[in-house]
Write a structure and sequence with these properties.
With about 170 residues, the protein is mainly alpha-helical. About 75% of the residues lie in helices and about 5% in strands. The protein contains five helices and three strands. A three-stranded parallel sheet has the order 2-1-3.
């Protein structure tokens, strides 16, 4: 009987401790995509990426126009040139096309790297602000309520306004 009382007491203590710790868990949510899009740094980064993208686009267009003009010229002069000269010109055109494709690939890689370099500090700043606000308000868990992130119900405290205030906008 004494063992039964001890076991019952231990069980009640366990259930009480579990419900006490569960009752103290605070959960909030924030739409990180909405936060990051609202940050002034994001607008600046997007403008810089767009500017760089347009620069590459213009260069590639100019290279393509130059190639097309050369092809037209070579086609017009085809009958006046020897077979060997025409083959050399065909190889030159193929080489130029290949170099344009390589440039396009390099431009794409450069854009991706630049985007990553610009966005990393923005994401880090947002995360630090979320952490600071969550700790200040006593939240142990902050879920991302961005559409498609896995949170199905977001009825808890939304930290978006508080984090924006922390970031100064």
């Amino acid at each position: 009987m004494k063992q039964f009382k001890t076991l019952l007491f231990a069980g009640l203590l366990f259930v009480g401790a579990t419900s006490l710790s569960t009752a103290q868990t605070k959960i909030a949510h924030i739409n990180t995509t909405q936060l990051i899009e609202a940050m002034p740094e994001m607008k600046t980064a997007q403008a810089e990426i767009e500017r760089l993208s347009k620069t590459y686009e213009t260069e590639i267009k100019n290279m393509m126009t130059e190639l097309q003009n050369k092809v037209k010229q070579y086609q017009a002069e085809m009958d006046t040139k020897t077979e060997e000269q025409n083959q050399e010109r065909a190889v030159e055109v193929q080489t130029t096309e290949q170099s344009i494709r390589q440039y396009q690939g390099q431009a794409q890689q450069d854009l991706q790297k630049k985007e990553a370099d610009l966005l990393k500090p923005i994401f880090e700043k947002a995360k630090a602000a979320i952490d600071k606000v969550a700790k200040a308000q006593g939240y142990q868990y902050v879920l991302d309520s961005t559409q498609g992130s896995g949170v199905l119900v977001a009825d808890g405290k939304d930290l978006l306004a508080d984090v924006k205030k922390e970031l100064g906008f």
